[in-house]
TrEMBL record:
InterPro entries: Cit_transptr-like_dom (IPR004680), NhaD-like (IPR045016). The chain crosses the membrane at residues 37-54, 66-81, 216-241, 262-280, 286-306, 349-370, 382-405, 417-444, 456-474. This is Sodium:proton antiporter NhaD. Its main location: membrane. It comes from the Bacteria. Keywords: Antiport, Ion transport, Membrane, Signal, Sodium, Sodium transport, Transmembrane, Transmembrane helix, Transport. It is found in: Membrane.
Length: 479
């Protein structure tokens, strides 16, 4: 998911659009877009996002302002609809938005729990240790971290993937600021591009899949455009990476018991979710929740068999006179699935609730109808979707994509795939354009910076344009 400020330009732009709205559609009460309550809702939403923007400086979690904004907006909506004797309309709208959020919340919660479980079983630590200890030169490491980011992010989220690869780059790069900066840019681009062709790669792709606009298999046609989005800037940047041979750092990391089987269960969970959606036409979240049961039963098995496992390992260590192995046995703790659930990114999940409810409220007030009328009726949908991608480098891609889905513009499959691609990879244009970029600015503080990324924005923009062109060429039959 992307974490960044909303541009105040959008706020004033929407206000200017609303002045031209003379009619409302659907269940929107006419005139709300130019009413005091309408303007107040826009101001509250803009102020909330201004606080999200200042999260790093205020140390105020991003979920708090949007949760408050959502409540205030719906209080005003409830008041005006009650005055008009149409409170049932507002109730139906809020229940619809709550259902949308509940499906995504439970889906993400299961995915985050599995990622947390794999992290606790040290799967990512082992991968990092392997890369650090192999003694690759800097250019090889540049390509390796980028390619792994591209292929891991479709399954894990782009934030976890980027942080894992950044840890490798920081450990090997040391004080080589130039290498760390360019390698982090490469990781951000790769993680965002890799997430664009998979429903599990980003919240935006998940939203498009869950609403049924694009089926699971149809996302795969974005693979080649996504590869191009990553490779074009990566090839250019690789010429500026030195071939220095850093000193290899050997670090022994042992996988905890059950790590590989948890990966298998996660893949089985994904297949279950796809089957529920594809064959039974149920929401994929039902399959994901069933997958959580797989992990719970496996956790039960690990706890029950732990004493016997420790006894076998102790006997083996004693026979081999391995003191280090004996010490490691003392640090073993039972696997607890509910502890993994508690480690989910709750601030992100609650932030997502605030965004969904705020955007849903603005939709009921008529603003999204106005924007949809201009972008998807007066403009060519292709240019509108390209603009959505550029916008997602400045504005959080979650509200942007949720707004597009709420508008429900009449678009071909090719255009739905296009907006999925652009919203996913557009954030690579700026370091603040994605969760991966924001996180790495913190993890590699002072070495990967906004302006260091900005220097390569023209090259990244070429990759963005090439990926769009390839999609239009390869998948022209779907338009």
């Amino acid at each position: 998911m992307k974490l960044k400020p909303i541009s105040l330009f959008i706020f004033f732009y929407v206000i200017s659009l609303s002045a031209s709205a003379s009619e409302s559609t659907g269940l929107v009460i006419e005139g709300l877009t130019t009413s005091t309550i309408g303007y107040a809702s826009l101001i509250i939403f803009a102020l909330a996002y201004s606080l999200v923007m200042a999260e790093e400086y205020l140390q105020l979690r991003k979920s708090k302002p949007v949760l408050l904004a959502a409540g205030l907006i719906w209080i005003m909506i409830g008041y005006v609809y009650q005055q008009q004797g149409q409170i049932e309309v507002a109730q139906q709208a809020i229940e619809h938005n709550l259902l949308e959020y509940a499906e995504l919340l439970l889906f993400l919660l299961v995915a985050m729990t599995y990622i947390s479980a794999m992290e606790e079983r040290r799967l990512f630590d082992v991968l990092r240790s392997w890369m650090v200890g192999k003694g690759f030169n800097l250019r090889t490491l540049f390509w390796l971290t980028g390619i792994l980011s591209f292929f891991i992010s479709p399954i894990a989220d782009n934030l976890t993937t980027a942080l894992l690869m950044c840890a490798v780059v920081m450990k090997v790069g040391g004080n080589n600021t130039k290498f760390i900066n360019i390698a982090c840019i490469n990781i951000v681009i790769a993680a965002n591009a890799g997430g664009a062709f998979s429903p599990f790669g980003d919240i935006t792709t998940l939203m498009v899949w869950q609403t049924g606009q694009v089926s699971f298999s149809q996302f795969l046609v974005l693979f080649i455009p996504s590869v191009a989005n990553y490779l074009v800037p990566a090839v250019v940047m690789s010429f500026f990476v030195p071939k220095e041979q850093p000193e290899s750092i050997h670090e022994y990391v042992e996988l905890k018991r059950g790590a590989k089987r948890i990966v298998g269960l996660f893949l089985l969970t994904i297949l279950t979710a796809v089957a529920f959606h594809g064959f039974l036409h149920f929401p994929p979240v039902i399959g994901m929740m069933m997958g959580l049961a797989y992990l719970q039963f496996f956790g039960f098995f690990l706890r029950k068999t732990l004493p016997a496992s420790i006894a076998r390992k102790r006997a083996k260590a004693v026979a081999a006179h391995d003191e280090a192995a004996l010490k490691r046995l003392g640090s073993i703790i039972p696997f607890d699935v509910f502890r993994r659930v508690s480690h989910a990114e709750w601030d992100t999940l609650l932030f997502f609730y605030g965004v969904v409810m705020c955007v849903g409220g603005l939709s009921l007030l008529g603003y999204l109808g106005v924007v949809s009328e201009i972008m998807y009726t007066q403009w060519d949908p292709i240019w509108a979707n390209v603009a959505v991608g550029v916008l997602s480098a400045v504005v959080d891609n979650i509200p942007v994509m949720f707004a597009v889905l709420t508008m429900e513009p009449e678009m071909s499959l090719g255009n739905w795939l296009l907006v999925t691609l652009t919203a996913g990879v557009g954030g690579s244009l700026l370091s603040i354009g994605s969760a991966a970029g924001v996180a790495l600015m913190g993890a590699a503080h002072g070495k990967y910076t906004f302006f260091g990324h900005l220097k390569w924005t023209p090259v990244i923009a070429v990759g963005y344009a090439v990926s769009i062109a390839l999609h239009l060429l390869i998948n022209q039959s779907s338009f």
